[in-house]
Amino acid sequence: FPSQTVTGNFAKVIHGLNANQLTDQVIQRSKRMILDTLGVGLLGTSTEVCHKVAQYSKIYSSDLSSAIWGHLDFRLPPLYAAFVNGVAVHSMDFDDTWHPATHPSGAVLPAVIALSEAFPQKKKISGLDLLLAFNVGIEVQGRLLHFSREARNIPRRY
After folding, report:
1. Cα separation of 2 and 146, whole Å?
2. CA neighbor of 37 nearest in space, from 112, 144, 132, 136
3. What CA–CA distance (Å, rounded) separates 108 from 86?
4. Locate the MmgE/PrpD N-terminal domain: which residues (predicted)?
5. How many Å apart are CA 139 and CA 5, to the nearest integer?
6. Number of structural domains found in the chain
7. What is the pLDDT of residue 93?
8. Quick check: 57 and 91 in contact, CB under 8 A?
9. Which residues pair with 71 in a beta bridge?
């Protein structure tokens, strides 16, 4: 169908994903990726760069808030919580990687968790919904990377 665009097809595939499509293998690998990312993120909360972005982000406030990992008394609007936690994950460069070079979980998990915390108590998402959101984020990142000319042949360029 000539009027369909790559973007339209991409959006259709992503929109059509649901928790029933998560295989046992995908669920197990996702849990391992999430656990690894949380561990690396907690370690990263002690870095200087993480402290700097956390201090910078304190100027922002909102009725919605999400946790800053490793700090029980420190919450930020979801956007800034995702930013600080994402910096924590990547600050020591131990987060997961795939080829071409990207760090999928460090970009996706902090955003998914921050957003899930911002839902009202009556609309909290399930663990399976969180796994689906995580996998959709990984899928989007992987497909965008696949389409990117900038990502081609990174090892040869450096």
Report:
1. 22
2. 112
3. 8
4. 9-151
5. 18
6. 1
7. 80
8. no
9. 68
H-only helix segments in the chain:
6-15, 24-44, 48-57, 78-90, 104-118, 127-147, 154-157
Residue 98 pLDDT greater than 90, yes or no: no
Give the least confident one: 14-18, 20-24, 97-101.
Answer: 97-101
User: Does the residue 4 lie in any domain?
Assistant: no
Q: Report angle CA 75, 103, 134 to the nearest 5 degrees.
A: 60
Q: Long-range contacts of range 145-150, CB-CB < 8 Å, 24 or more positions apart?
A: 145/100, 145/102, 147/6
- From the list 137, 90, 82, 71, the residue with the least C-alpha distance to 114 is 82
Looking up residue 44, the CATH number of its domain turns out to be 1.10.4100.10
In angstroms, rounded to a whole number, what is the distance separating the alpha carbons of residues 54 and 115?
18
Report residue 71 as tokens.
Answer: 């700090």
